[in-house]
Amino acid sequence: MSQLLAKRLAALVATLFATSLIVFLVMAVLPGDPAQIILGIGAQEDTLAALRHELGLDRPLIEQYLLWVGGLLTGDLGESYTYSRPVSELIGQRVLVSLPLAVFAILLSTAIAIPAGVVAAAKHNKAADIGVSALAQIGIAIPNFWFAMLLILFFAVTLGWFPAGGFAGWDEGVLPALRSLLLPAVALALPQAAILTRVTRSAVLEVLGEDHVRTARAKGLTRGAALRRHAVRNALIPVVTIMGLQFSFLLAGTIVIENVFYLPGLGRLLFQAIAQRDLIVVQSLVVLLAGAVVIVNFVVDLTYLVIDPRLRKAVHG
């Protein structure tokens, strides 16, 4: 077990190092001058040079990279060119929106998808299965930003039940904050639930066709009992894999939805930083989000060992 953990941790560190190097090099070769963007097109060359020196942009690339990575390791992410505030402070404020939104969305997605997928598998080729499969296909086909606009039009503009955008803030209370996040969470959750439903259905059907389930049925176990005791648990491994990938996507890929709902989250901060050529914010955000994805996948790998006893036996020997 310890050997497996050491290999996974080594892969995590190597992935983060490669990600930081790629992100830094990509940002370095992109056109645009942060000093020019900050001071405007009418700035004098000596003023631009002074600002580049102050920001450290005139240093060799290798020195810039080492200083930046050293700051990441010590928790000093630098100062934003645009906001003139520590990057860690900006990220700390925005993650209080993006992380609850991602958790809210994955909980909604899981609560919808797993029961729907199990029901579809239990009623294979019947009306329930056909209906669930059709709805899942529609959910996959609809872009989440278009679905988000429909939610705003109906629930915010027409009915007035929820705000059309913005975030109330946790200082206003948990319920107002969650109310602000409900429509964005639904817009994110339903397309993911459609994918997870199809995966759950396929996984449960595959397990129902395995020998140990047929043996249990031959011994007198009902289909429902076989489904509960054998099929669902054994089908969770591919489901957990997809859930991990979806949570990573929801945490790192909410740029469009956060802009549609005007939420001050990490996705919107990344979008603004790219538009303003705020390199230090973009670099730090991308590496931190990549780190979150790698850590989620690491947790998923460990979850396999909890779900499947066969994997625990293989690890121990």
UniProtKB/TrEMBL annotation:
Q: What is this protein called?
A: ABC transporter permease
Q: Which family does it belong to?
A: Belongs to the binding-protein-dependent transport system permease family.
Q: Write down the superkingdom of origin.
A: Bacteria
Tell me the Pfam families matching this sequence. BPD_transp_1 (PF00528), BPD_transp_1_N (PF19300)
* MF terms (GO), sorted A to Z: dipeptide transmembrane transporter activity
Principal subcellular localisation of the protein: membrane
* Record CDD domains: TM_PBP2 (cd06261)
Q: Which InterPro entries match?
A: BPD_transp_1_N (IPR045621), MetI-like (IPR000515), MetI-like_sf (IPR035906)
A single GO cellular-component term on record: plasma membrane
Its annotated compartments are:
Cell membrane
Q: How does it sit in the membrane?
A: Multi-pass membrane protein
Q: For the ABC transmembrane type-1 domain, which residue ranges apply?
A: 95-306
The residue ranges crossing the membrane are: 9-30, 95-122, 134-157, 177-196, 235-261, 281-307
Name the SUPFAM superfamilies for this protein: MetI-like (SSF161098)
